[in-house]
Amino acid sequence: MHPELRRAYDAELTMAISRYDAGDLRLAFSHLERAHILGQSFPIAHARTHWWMLKVGWRQRDVVEIIGQLPRILGALLFSRMWVPIGNTGGARVPPFKPMPIPEELQILLEKYGPTAKA
Q1: Contacts of 39 (CB under 8 A, 6+ apart)
Q2: Is the separation of the CB atoms in 102 and 41 below 8 Å?
Q3: In whole angstroms, what is the distance from residue 45 CA to residue 30 CA?
Q4: 25-39 and 43-60 helices cross at what angle (nearest 10)?
Q5: How many CB atoms lie within 10 A of CB 114?
Q6: Chain segment 20-75, per-residue pLDDT in tens
Q7: Domain extents in the chain
Q8: Contact (Cβ atoms closer than 8 angstroms) between residue 13 and residue 48
Q9: 14 near 49, Cβ under 8 Å?
Q10: If residue 98 lies in a helix (H) or strand (E), which one and from where to where?
Q11: Is this structure's pTM higher than 0.90?
């Protein structure tokens, strides 16, 4: 992962964990969705985001999120380098293979520093 993309991913994940610790699970999940978009092409970062989504689901007692995140963690580890649905936010209520629009500021980062960026 390019250092600039790593910095942005880490910032989103850090904010998510901070909001999780503060009990603001809605905002934590929003930051996890952004981290997912940035890290989904990298197996460990991708799986780590799904792990935290699972933790949010567990804390909310959200059965759909809990059940939905378990196969996504495994899929992230196995398939991230081969293919990911670009822009997918990673939550269990989003079809796992559905490409989605990317927020403009994240699109700029991915174009400049993502796995398909020209060096």
Answers
A1: 1, 9, 45, 46, 48, 49
A2: no
A3: 16
A4: 160
A5: 18
A6: 999 999 999 999 999 999 999 999 999 999 999 999 999 999 999 999 999 999 99
A7: 3-113
A8: yes
A9: no
A10: none
A11: yes
